[in-house]
Amino acid sequence: YLDNSKHGVIYFSMGSMLKGCNFPEEKRNAFISAFAQLKENVLWKYENTSLPNKPKNVLIKQWMPQNDILAHPNVKLFITHGGLLGSTESLYHGKPMVGVPIYGDQRLNMARARNAGYGTSVEYEHLTQQSISDAIRTVLANPS
After folding, report:
1. What DSSP designation does 40 have?
2. Could you tell me which CATH number the domain at 9-141 has?
């Protein structure tokens, strides 16, 4: 999947504590709609075996080797909650981030990413198809 994605791959994981399958339908559909508009493929760490209305360019898996995925040259962007481990792995592999911080150190980690120019964030309360699409386009258009 990674090797055969001619437009690149966006990796989406909210870590082990936040589960995409538990997102309210409105938030989940915002991601689905945003991803459907992309030319890139999307790898989504999603905890169920099926995702209603899953676009053709989205592959879901219940678990993925995050560090290995971020190391792959076809990965163009990491959508994350902004936790310390994932942020560190993303930075190590030179992958820009779109963060959706929820709690703890996540807001601070994403503020550092914004200030250093390797990421941006969208507040969970303001997640819409438009805000997600805008954040993805902004980061992909300005790789650091």
Report:
1. S
2. 3.40.50.2000
